[in-house]
Amino acid sequence: MKIKDYAEEIINKIENIQLSFWSTISLIYIAIFFRTFLENFANTSNLNHMTGFVDTFLGYPAWFSIIFLAVFIIARILTKEEITKVSKVVAVFSFIVMVPPIVDLILNKGNPIPYIFISGNYSELLKSFFTYFGGGDLGIGIRTEVAVVLTGFGFYIFNKTKNVGHTIIGIFLLYSTIFVALIFPTLVLSLKNTISNEYQVINKSNTIDFYFKKEPVKSVTEERTFLIDTVIDKNFYSPLAQRILNMYSTTFAIIFLAINAILMGWYLFLYSSKKFFAVFRNFRYLRIVHYFLMISVGIYLGVTLTGRSPVGSIFDLFSFVSLFLAILFAWLFAVWENDEVDIEIDRISNQERPLVKEDSLFSLKEWQDIKYLFLTYSLGFAFLSGLYSLVFVLLFIFVYHIYSTPPLKLKRFIGISSLLIAINALLAVWMGFFLSAGTEKLSAFPGKYTFAILLIFLLVENVKNIKDIEGDKKEGIKTIPVIFGEKKGKMIIGCCLFLAAILVPFIFYFSIYTLLLGIFFGIMLFRLTNRKEFKENYIFITYFIYIVLFFVMINI
Q: 20 to 30 Å CA-CA from 298: which of 69, 90, 122, 528?
């Protein structure tokens, strides 16, 4: 049998093996982890090199997964093959990532090998692109790895398409993706120049200097608590050097993880465009805006009470981005978990939900895969935002879990369900506050604001129960509309919304103007709640406008 025929037979067998989505991800992650271990073993030079805990378990896997996802996507587009089959083949051959440190250990006979990103000015980068990573930044091991990957990828494309043009395009696109991923430090320095008044010339020296000397000095969030941060071996790093390395690693881990999430969305689109759009339609965008608004309120309070500037560096910028993404994916996990257990209620009250449609696109296994993918991203971004963010996000997820799912399913009980939602609003505010305030003391957050937020959202949370009356009644869930009926229930909830709107100026900032604003929006919310044709979206939009106008007014 010819080598070509033998390779085709192996590919066909791999494509038909039973390998779940998470098994595929796990196989790739294991290969990446061992690559990282071998690389750290082979490397003794720390210059421009990611070596810490964040890199090993988040930064490196997120970076490599960008390449893997690019392989999936490019191959799917060019070959029209099912992306799950492409994923299986790539996962089985993912051990190729271990080639560089093995080759370098053999060829360099124990001498230090710097594994670094490519840096330099634009002309140097362009030259490196057209000379196959020329310029001395990369060793023979990585060059060998890329050559093997491009050759194998080209063979796969040609085997599936029998088209030389598609094969050349595929190799070029993958090479370009790898190259762009390897010059990321330079690209981020360019971004910093765009958003900063202090321009730095783009060259290798300034790129290294940016990450290891200058960037942390102006960082607002540098004093935040990391999960593993202050255990320092003085034989290697000073406290300042350790903090700089942590910030360098965290910044890139956030960027890589965000790109990974975007590419994973593209993966889902290529898996099934119908399922992709069904997922996005189920996001409950107005509630996402609500939690984003609560984080923003927390950031505002942190900045106001401490006098700190919210963004002093690129590290700050991505720290806040990471926090918003953590709450986004935590919310999506909660939504997916709630929909999974509320199928019978949704058959009555929310028939547009994906799992209750007669022609449901999703199997339960697919639904759970997406749910746990959201959880993974949420915890990853929360970890990169610091210890407090991680703890608060875990509490946020836990609160929604006991709210929605058996055996507790606390949303069945009037009062308790509202309190749980109010607690999550408070947690979102705390996330923003403790990231921006630069303190670890819980007592730094004013107690009156804690009780005020709980009280206000205890009053307003009941509005979401109006549209679920029939479903809640059937499942024995006690809410104000179920107990008092739709008409009286609306009146009671409308009064609660009016009272909440009035409380805002009395608690946060009182003036005749903020009081009039509160009265106006309180009346608006009452009327919208008691409309014959109730529209929950109108309530949310009015509430958003009120909060934004309130904080604009107090800063005029």
A: 528
Percent of the chain scoring above 90 in pLDDT:
48
CB-CB contact of 115 with 50 (8 Å) = no
- R_g of the chain computed on alpha carbons: 27
pTM of the model: 0.90
Q: Is 307 helix (H, G, I), strand (E, B) or coil?
A: coil
Convert the pLDDT of each residue in 145-189 to its tens digit: 999 999 999 999 999 999 999 999 999 999 999 999 988 878 877
CA–CA separation, 140 and 22 (whole Å)? 33
Tell me the C-alpha to C-alpha distance, in Å, between residue 11 and each of 34, 271, 284.
Answer: 24, 20, 41
Here the tokens at position 251 are 């910044």
Q: Residue 528 — left, alpha, or beta (φ > 0 → left; ψ -120 to 50 → alpha)? A: alpha
Q: In order of start, what are the domains of the chain with their CATH numbers?
A: 3-182 (no CATH), 219-445 (1.10.357.140), 459-556 (1.20.120)
So what's the pLDDT on residue 190? 76
| CB-based contact 118:138 (threshold 8 Å) | yes
For 35, other C-beta atoms within 10 Å of its C-beta total 23
> Do 31 and 95 meet the contact criterion of CB atoms below 8 Å apart?
yes
Give the per-residue pLDDT at 3.
66
The sign of the CA dihedral 533, 538, 543, 545 is negative
Q: What is the C-alpha separation between 313 and 329, in angstroms, rounded?
A: 25
Please state, in angstroms and rounded to a whole number, the distance separating the CA atoms of residues 522 and 402.
31
Residue 147 carries which side chain, given as an amino acid letter? A
CA 442, 434, 225, 376 torsion: positive or negative? positive
Cβ-proximal residues to 208 (8 Å cutoff; 6+ apart), any chain: 47, 48, 119
Q: pLDDT tens digit string along 364-380?
A: 899 999 999 999 999 99
State the pLDDT at residue 533: 86
Write the DSSP symbol of residue 110.
T
Query: For the purposes of burial, counting CB atoms within 10 Å of the CB of 85, is it exposed (0-12), middle (13-18) or buried (19 or more)?
Result: buried
Q: Is 53 helix (H, G, I), strand (E, B) or coil?
A: helix
In the numeric block, which tokens belong to residue 77?
């587009």
Reading the block at residue 541, the tokens are 């939009």
Give 102 or 233, the one with higher predicted confidence.
102
DSSP string, 124-135: HHHHHHHTTSTT
Asked whether 405 and 271 are in contact (CB, 8 A), the reply is no
